[in-house]
Design goal:
Elements lengths: L2 H9 L17 H7 L2 H4 L9 E2 L26 E6 L6 E8 L5 E2 L4 H10 L3 E5 L1 H6 L1 H9 L3 E5 L12 H23 L2 H4 L14 E2 L8 H9 L3 E3 L3 E2 L9 H11 L5 E5 L7 H14 L3 E2 L2 H5 L3 E5 L12 H9 L41
Parallel strand pairs: 2-8, 3-5, 3-10, 3-11, 5-6, 7-8, 9-10
Antiparallel strand pairs: 1-4, 2-12
Length: 370
């Protein structure tokens, strides 16, 4: 076994090398069944709707007394796009972002979770800290479900390349603290106490992280890795935040572009407009091709992660336009207006726009992107 795979197993809590083994970063079926009936787990119509203008959960998450996990080893630092798995291992990781910005309460698309459970398909959900706070009941359900893994997607879906070190720290650590708080609340429930397995399998903090908009720089990558998380990108983007992308085109991106070891990005927060319908098409087709679905952390231990020094969608530089859009939203003199956490850190050579991607994998808008 290579040193990288050994380090990954230690970092991710001893996850089994086979995709069929229950993930050590997911919950356990005994706790799930003890705490939640099928009716409680089921999606509720309208729950996927984004409530714009709702500032109920806008207060920053307090980090007092919080201790980050041990840093990621040097060999695993950087942006992980996919995993090169051994020949014959037809495994892929479905991932879904649960973004939520300030001034809104994002949704929970229950149809996605219901179908994944029906199909026994594992998946990783990258949840924002604010989303975790505003969806406490749902995040606790995801924690206890052995099919699912919860990752970190910053506090409020910020472009970390445009923030000061102090603001980056808040964005990176806030979801860890929110997860820790939710875990403590879950542990106090009587249903957990009555479960033979209790909290086993539920980590203290998320082990994987995804950058909003797919943008990062050296400082933000270091902050994530120093906080003990692997920085997970993707190699298949479906374009599902684009309301004009049909279910058929989203499904085609998953089925036609996925390869063994691929990481597929979608959304489950009400901004994956036709994702639920697309999964009805894609999952049976992927299964027919022989693919098995694993969590991101399981996938990491099954081969050699492909690690790059920068973040991008399909090619280096293709997410630079988000820096431009962020600069428009937060002008250079914003610090004098009480927004000192925002600075201009556009990378040298960054362009305000790039060529459009092929329509089948349209890039999401800045307001609702990855």
């Amino acid at each position: 076994m290579s040193m990288i795979r050994i380090q990954l197993r230690l970092l991710l809590g001893g996850i089994a090398m086979a995709a069929s083994t229950v993930s050590a970063v997911a919950g356990n079926s005994a706790a799930l069944q003890a705490c939640y009936s099928p009716a409680v787990l089921a999606g509720v119509q309208g729950e996927e709707t984004v409530a714009r203008g709702n500032r109920t959960f806008d207060a920053p998450i307090k980090l007092g007394g919080f201790t980050p996990a041990a840093p990621v080893p040097d060999e695993l630092r950087g942006s992980i796009r996919r995993v090169n798995v051994p020949k014959g291992e037809k495994v892929i990781a479905l991932t879904f972002d649960l973004c939520e910005q300030r001034g809104e309460v994002a949704g929970y698309d229950g149809r996605i979770f219901d179908y994944l459970r029906q199909q026994g398909a594992k998946a990783t959900f990258f949840a924002g800290g604010k989303w975790i706070v505003s969806h406490r009941a749902r995040i606790e359900q995801l924690m206890t479900d052995p099919l699912f893994e919860v990752g970190n997607h910053t506090e409020t879906h910020a472009n970390l390349r445009l923030l000061t070190p102090e603001a980056i720290r808040q964005q990176v650590l806030a979801p860890q603290k929110a997860f820790e708080d939710a875990r403590a609340d879950l542990a106090s429930k009587q249903c957990i106490a009555s479960s033979t397995e209790g909290m086993s399998g539920i980590p203290d903090q998320p082990k994987v992280f995804r950058f909003p908009y797919g943008t990062c720089n050296e400082a933000s990558l270091k902050a994530v890795n120093d906080a003990g998380m692997l920085a997970i990108q993707w190699d298949v983007a479906t374009g599902d935040p684009d309301p004009h992308e049909s279910a058929e085109r989203i499904a085609a991106a998953m089925v036609n572009e996925a390869k063994p070891g691929s990481i597929i990005v979608n959304h489950a927060n009400g901004r994956g407009w036709h994702t639920a319908e697309a999964l009805l098409i894609a999952i049976p087709k992927l299964k027919a091709k022989g693919y098995k679905f694993v969590t991101v952390s399981e996938l990491m231990t099954m081969g050699k992660p492909v690690i790059t020094a920068e973040c991008y969608d399909r090619k280096p530089g293709d997410v630079n336009r988000y820096d431009f859009l962020g600069a428009l939203k937060h002008p250079l003199n914003a610090a004098s207006k009480g927004t000192a956490n925002v600075v201009s850190t556009a990378e040298p050579g960054a362009k305000p726009a790039v060529k459009k991607k092929p329509k089948a994998a349209a890039t999401p808008t800045a307001a609702s992107g990855n």
